[in-house]
TrEMBL record:
Transmembrane segments: none annotated. PROSITE patterns: MPN (PS50249), UPF0758 (PS01302). InterPro entries: MPN (IPR037518), RadC_JAB (IPR025657), UPF0758 (IPR001405), UPF0758_CS (IPR020891), UPF0758_N (IPR046778). Pfam families: RadC (PF04002), UPF0758_N (PF20582). It comes from Candidatus Cryptobacteroides merdavium. Belongs to the UPF0758 family. One of its GO terms (molecular function) is metallopeptidase activity. This is DNA repair protein RadC. Residues 113-235 form the MPN domain. Keywords: Hydrolase, Metal-binding, Metalloprotease, Protease, Zinc.
Length: 239
Protein backbone atom coordinates (compact mmCIF):
# COMPACT_ATOMS: atom_id res chain seq x y z
CA UNK A 1 0.00 0.00 0.00
CA UNK A 2 1.39 3.41 -1.04
CA UNK A 3 1.42 6.32 1.37
CA UNK A 4 1.16 9.97 0.40
CA UNK A 5 4.83 10.48 1.30
CA UNK A 6 5.91 7.89 -1.23
CA UNK A 7 6.82 5.20 1.32
CA UNK A 8 5.15 1.83 1.47
CA UNK A 9 3.26 0.53 4.51
CA UNK A 10 3.88 -3.15 5.21
CA UNK A 11 0.90 -5.17 6.34
CA UNK A 12 1.45 -7.60 9.19
CA UNK A 13 0.69 -10.56 6.94
CA UNK A 14 3.57 -9.47 4.68
CA UNK A 15 6.05 -9.90 7.52
CA UNK A 16 7.70 -13.29 7.85
CA UNK A 17 6.12 -15.34 10.69
CA UNK A 18 9.13 -14.88 12.99
CA UNK A 19 8.66 -11.10 12.82
CA UNK A 20 4.94 -11.05 13.64
CA UNK A 21 4.45 -10.25 17.36
CA UNK A 22 2.02 -13.08 18.14
CA UNK A 23 4.01 -15.76 16.35
CA UNK A 24 7.27 -14.41 17.79
CA UNK A 25 5.85 -14.58 21.31
CA UNK A 26 4.72 -18.17 20.83
CA UNK A 27 8.04 -19.31 19.38
CA UNK A 28 10.50 -17.24 21.40
CA UNK A 29 8.64 -16.12 24.54
CA UNK A 30 7.24 -12.81 25.73
CA UNK A 31 10.61 -11.51 26.93
CA UNK A 32 11.91 -11.54 23.34
CA UNK A 33 9.39 -8.89 22.25
CA UNK A 34 9.92 -5.14 22.32
CA UNK A 35 7.46 -2.87 24.13
CA UNK A 36 5.94 -1.92 20.79
CA UNK A 37 5.45 -5.58 19.84
CA UNK A 38 3.74 -6.34 23.15
CA UNK A 39 1.45 -3.36 22.67
CA UNK A 40 0.68 -4.53 19.15
CA UNK A 41 -0.64 -7.81 20.55
CA UNK A 42 -3.00 -5.87 22.81
CA UNK A 43 -4.14 -3.57 19.99
CA UNK A 44 -4.72 -6.56 17.66
CA UNK A 45 -5.30 -4.57 14.44
CA UNK A 46 -4.03 -1.45 12.74
CA UNK A 47 -5.67 0.84 10.20
CA UNK A 48 -5.71 1.23 6.43
CA UNK A 49 -2.69 3.53 6.66
CA UNK A 50 -0.68 1.85 9.43
CA UNK A 51 -0.29 -1.73 10.52
CA UNK A 52 -0.73 -2.60 14.18
CA UNK A 53 2.99 -2.47 14.97
CA UNK A 54 3.26 1.04 13.54
CA UNK A 55 0.21 2.07 15.55
CA UNK A 56 1.83 0.69 18.70
CA UNK A 57 5.02 2.62 17.93
CA UNK A 58 3.00 5.84 17.58
CA UNK A 59 1.41 5.20 20.96
CA UNK A 60 4.82 4.71 22.56
CA UNK A 61 6.13 7.85 20.88
CA UNK A 62 3.25 9.83 22.40
CA UNK A 63 4.34 8.42 25.80
CA UNK A 64 7.89 9.68 25.13
CA UNK A 65 9.05 6.13 24.55
CA UNK A 66 8.48 4.95 28.12
CA UNK A 67 6.02 2.64 29.79
CA UNK A 68 5.87 5.00 32.77
CA UNK A 69 4.58 7.68 30.40
CA UNK A 70 2.02 5.25 29.07
CA UNK A 71 0.84 4.34 32.59
CA UNK A 72 -0.07 7.96 33.28
CA UNK A 73 -1.75 8.47 29.89
CA UNK A 74 -5.54 8.77 29.88
CA UNK A 75 -7.81 6.62 27.72
CA UNK A 76 -8.94 9.79 25.97
CA UNK A 77 -5.39 10.70 24.97
CA UNK A 78 -4.72 7.19 23.63
CA UNK A 79 -7.84 7.53 21.50
CA UNK A 80 -6.36 10.59 19.78
CA UNK A 81 -4.18 8.23 17.74
CA UNK A 82 -5.79 6.99 14.55
CA UNK A 83 -6.73 3.34 14.82
CA UNK A 84 -7.03 3.34 18.61
CA UNK A 85 -10.63 3.46 19.75
CA UNK A 86 -11.98 3.32 23.26
CA UNK A 87 -11.99 -0.49 23.32
CA UNK A 88 -8.30 -0.76 22.42
CA UNK A 89 -7.34 2.05 24.79
CA UNK A 90 -9.18 0.41 27.67
CA UNK A 91 -7.44 -2.90 26.91
CA UNK A 92 -4.02 -1.23 27.10
CA UNK A 93 -4.94 0.62 30.30
CA UNK A 94 -6.19 -2.62 31.88
CA UNK A 95 -2.96 -4.45 30.99
CA UNK A 96 -0.87 -1.65 32.50
CA UNK A 97 -2.95 -1.70 35.67
CA UNK A 98 -2.40 -5.45 35.98
CA UNK A 99 1.33 -4.81 35.68
CA UNK A 100 1.13 -2.25 38.48
CA UNK A 101 -0.76 -4.68 40.71
CA UNK A 102 1.76 -7.43 40.01
CA UNK A 103 4.49 -4.99 41.00
CA UNK A 104 2.71 -4.37 44.29
CA UNK A 105 2.50 -8.12 44.98
CA UNK A 106 6.20 -8.77 44.46
CA UNK A 107 7.07 -5.73 46.56
CA UNK A 108 4.96 -6.84 49.51
CA UNK A 109 7.03 -5.80 52.49
CA UNK A 110 4.19 -5.54 54.98
CA UNK A 111 5.07 -8.98 56.41
CA UNK A 112 8.46 -7.76 57.62
CA UNK A 113 9.26 -4.75 59.82
CA UNK A 114 10.36 -1.53 58.17
CA UNK A 115 14.07 -1.06 58.87
CA UNK A 116 14.99 1.86 56.64
CA UNK A 117 13.93 4.29 53.90
CA UNK A 118 15.03 2.01 51.06
CA UNK A 119 12.33 -0.47 52.09
CA UNK A 120 9.80 2.35 52.04
CA UNK A 121 10.97 3.38 48.58
CA UNK A 122 10.68 -0.18 47.24
CA UNK A 123 7.23 -0.60 48.77
CA UNK A 124 5.86 2.61 47.29
CA UNK A 125 7.55 2.58 43.88
CA UNK A 126 4.79 0.49 42.20
CA UNK A 127 2.25 3.06 43.37
CA UNK A 128 4.18 6.19 42.40
CA UNK A 129 6.45 5.33 39.48
CA UNK A 130 5.74 7.42 36.40
CA UNK A 131 3.27 9.81 38.03
CA UNK A 132 3.19 13.27 36.50
CA UNK A 133 1.37 14.78 39.43
CA UNK A 134 2.13 14.83 43.15
CA UNK A 135 0.53 12.33 45.51
CA UNK A 136 0.87 11.96 49.26
CA UNK A 137 0.62 8.55 50.96
CA UNK A 138 0.75 7.58 54.60
CA UNK A 139 2.01 4.29 56.05
CA UNK A 140 0.85 3.32 59.55
CA UNK A 141 3.10 1.16 61.73
CA UNK A 142 2.61 -0.83 64.92
CA UNK A 143 5.17 -0.87 67.75
CA UNK A 144 7.26 -3.49 65.93
CA UNK A 145 7.39 -1.30 62.78
CA UNK A 146 5.13 -3.60 60.76
CA UNK A 147 2.87 -1.81 58.27
CA UNK A 148 -0.74 -2.05 59.46
CA UNK A 149 -2.21 0.36 56.93
CA UNK A 150 -1.41 2.32 53.77
CA UNK A 151 -3.53 5.14 52.32
CA UNK A 152 -3.31 7.80 49.65
CA UNK A 153 -4.27 11.06 51.34
CA UNK A 154 -4.06 13.53 48.50
CA UNK A 155 -3.55 13.93 44.78
CA UNK A 156 -2.38 17.26 43.46
CA UNK A 157 -0.74 19.06 40.55
CA UNK A 158 2.70 19.05 38.98
CA UNK A 159 4.50 20.59 41.95
CA UNK A 160 2.22 20.49 44.99
CA UNK A 161 -0.49 18.62 46.82
CA UNK A 162 -2.54 19.48 49.90
CA UNK A 163 -2.09 17.42 53.06
CA UNK A 164 -4.59 17.51 55.95
CA UNK A 165 -2.50 16.89 59.08
CA UNK A 166 -5.60 16.50 61.25
CA UNK A 167 -6.97 13.68 59.09
CA UNK A 168 -3.64 11.82 59.18
CA UNK A 169 -3.58 12.06 62.99
CA UNK A 170 -7.23 11.01 63.24
CA UNK A 171 -6.65 7.95 61.04
CA UNK A 172 -3.50 7.01 62.99
CA UNK A 173 -5.47 7.07 66.25
CA UNK A 174 -8.27 4.97 64.73
CA UNK A 175 -5.76 2.37 63.52
CA UNK A 176 -4.00 2.35 66.92
CA UNK A 177 -0.76 3.13 65.10
CA UNK A 178 2.45 3.73 67.02
CA UNK A 179 4.25 5.30 64.07
CA UNK A 180 3.56 7.04 60.79
CA UNK A 181 5.61 7.39 57.60
CA UNK A 182 4.77 10.17 55.15
CA UNK A 183 5.59 9.54 51.48
CA UNK A 184 5.13 11.87 48.54
CA UNK A 185 6.63 12.18 45.07
CA UNK A 186 8.32 14.92 43.05
CA UNK A 187 7.47 14.50 39.33
CA UNK A 188 10.34 16.89 38.52
CA UNK A 189 12.86 14.11 39.21
CA UNK A 190 14.54 16.01 42.05
CA UNK A 191 13.65 14.55 45.48
CA UNK A 192 15.17 17.40 47.49
CA UNK A 193 12.43 18.74 49.80
CA UNK A 194 11.31 22.33 49.56
CA UNK A 195 10.41 24.64 52.41
CA UNK A 196 6.76 23.55 52.19
CA UNK A 197 7.82 19.91 52.66
CA UNK A 198 10.01 20.79 55.63
CA UNK A 199 7.28 22.83 57.32
CA UNK A 200 4.72 20.06 56.76
CA UNK A 201 7.08 17.54 58.36
CA UNK A 202 7.49 19.70 61.43
CA UNK A 203 3.74 20.29 61.77
CA UNK A 204 2.95 16.59 61.42
CA UNK A 205 5.63 15.57 63.92
CA UNK A 206 4.31 18.04 66.50
CA UNK A 207 0.73 16.90 65.99
CA UNK A 208 1.68 13.22 66.27
CA UNK A 209 3.66 13.73 69.47
CA UNK A 210 0.53 15.10 71.15
CA UNK A 211 -0.90 11.58 70.95
CA UNK A 212 2.37 9.72 71.58
CA UNK A 213 2.67 8.68 67.94
CA UNK A 214 6.05 8.88 66.19
CA UNK A 215 6.68 10.39 62.78
CA UNK A 216 9.16 7.72 61.70
CA UNK A 217 10.14 9.22 58.36
CA UNK A 218 9.11 11.45 55.49
CA UNK A 219 10.31 10.04 52.17
CA UNK A 220 10.28 12.15 48.99
CA UNK A 221 10.36 9.89 45.93
CA UNK A 222 11.30 10.08 42.27
CA UNK A 223 11.36 7.17 39.85
CA UNK A 224 15.07 6.48 40.37
CA UNK A 225 15.96 7.94 43.78
CA UNK A 226 14.57 9.25 47.03
CA UNK A 227 15.22 11.62 49.93
CA UNK A 228 14.71 10.47 53.52
CA UNK A 229 14.21 13.02 56.29
CA UNK A 230 15.31 10.33 58.74
CA UNK A 231 18.57 9.64 56.89
CA UNK A 232 19.31 13.34 56.66
CA UNK A 233 18.74 13.89 60.38
CA UNK A 234 15.70 16.09 59.89
CA UNK A 235 12.89 16.47 62.46
CA UNK A 236 11.69 12.87 62.61
CA UNK A 237 12.34 9.85 64.82
CA UNK A 238 15.00 7.52 63.40
CA UNK A 239 14.03 3.96 62.50
Amino acid sequence: MKRTDGKTDMKMKELCPDERPREKMISKGADSLSNAELLAILLRTGTGRHNVLETAQMLLKMAEGSLSGLVSMSVEKMCSIGGIGQGKAVTVAAALELGKRYGREICRLDRVPITGPEMIYRMMLPEMRGLRHEECWVLYLNRANYVIGKERFSKGGLDSTTVDVRMIVKTAIEKLASGVILVHNHPSGNPTPGQTDIKLTGRLKAAMETFDISLVDHVVMCDDRFYSFSDEGMTVCRI
